[in-house]
Amino acid sequence: NILECASFLIAKNKGRYGKELWSDKDKGEKISIKGFWHTKEESVYVSDEIEKLISNKTPLSEIAILFRVSAHTRSFEDRFINLGLSYKIIGGLRFYERKEIRDVIAYLRLVHNLDDNLALERIINVPKRGIGRTTLGKINSIARNNNISMFNAGSKMIQDSTSKVNIEINEFIRKVHKWYNLKKEIDHIELTQLILEDSKYVEYLEQEEKNSKNPENLNRLENIKEFIESLKDFENLEGFLEHVGLVMENISNTNDESISLMTMHSAKGLEFDNVFLAGWEEGVFPSMRSIDELGKKGLEEERRLAYVALTRARRKIHITYVNQNRYSYVSHDFNIPSRFIEELPKNLVNINNSTYLSNNNFIDEFSQIENMDSSFITPGRKRLLSRIKKEEDDWDFNQDYQSNSNATEGSRVFHQKFGYGKIIFIDGDKAEVDFEKSSQRKIFLKYLQFTA
Q1: pTM of the predicted protein model
Q2: Is residue 102 part of a domain?
Q3: Helices 220-231 & 201-211, crossing angle to 10 degrees?
Q4: Which of 92, 124, 131 is nearest to 109 (CA)?
Q5: 440 in helix, strand or coil?
Q6: How would residue 159 be classed by pLDDT, with cut points 50, 70 and 90?
Q7: Rounded CA separation 150/156 (Å)
Q8: Number of H helices, E strands in the chain
Q9: Domains identified in the chain, total number
Q10: Could you list the residue range(s) of the whole structural domain that residue 123 is in?
């Protein structure tokens, strides 16, 4: 079944030399495809399936999780740490070991505790501020001689002169004091976003991505987005930093027998009995960046990656996707499943959509809308409608299902994330909406549901 699915998928690539994969093993199980509303549900499902495998004496070394984006290992790593399941990252670093994540954690540690000398040493010159080893040595010396923290030693040192480097140190200290004073007034998520903005750390990563040919640099911004998402699991900064301490302990206590986590690129040449393919959402996989930059060639390369991922499994494959956008502050709220899921042979897969979809009657309501202008129908919605006509179970989703022809100032609308509100004014394809349980926001008309 696995080889037949992989061959069926890759056959969509035109101009490819046809070759049929075969195996002398039995047909095996169908590929399991499951949709979830949140990333947490996805990682809980995968960990539950792994626990079942363990109870059936399956070695951890025969279990692997493959991702298109390395940042998406984070929710699985956190879950495994909480459960005490041993894991390793193949061909890369664990999420909290990655340079940019350690940098942001160091900023947060320093803001939490101004006496944290290790945190200060790590980020006082990141991004570059012209504060080199010689200057750090002087600060260290003042700290030791006066039995004070390096942060206070830096404040003491800049009193002696107004050199360029001292001006930079003064500006750094001023910003840290500002963040330290604000930490009781704003939550830890806003604080982190403010630090990233004030320190120009995101700009620094964007510049790195622009100038570097190292593929790792392309993932750094994704890792930062995932990091901010991870903060939502904690009530405050203290709780998050305690968790990080636990994570770092787990990193130092590794077993040979571990679950393998890796990107699809890192999986080439490896095989496992049980493979979980996570994050099969349109825009994530296939990668929107790849399609935007390379067009059809990029799409075919992504399909080859899907083929590689599928053929890593000897016995069983689970494919998962998440409906809610992994980063809730991006321009749209929801994902549809990857087009590659649609390209798999229907008789060889078992599909289960998210609880949200199965408990929501909007699909039935939408399918009854007549005379809808085809320009409003996205590819995801077209597939959704075609399945309803065939009386097939739906596992595809796009929330922008209502025409904006009803849009007028004063209209009452509903948004999946922000709830009910009233349109204040319309600007092209967007509307300024005053939400009843949120603030006033500018939203694309296609993401609004018009109510009577």
Answers
A1: 0.69
A2: yes
A3: 150
A4: 124
A5: strand
A6: confident
A7: 10
A8: 18, 12
A9: 3
A10: 97-240
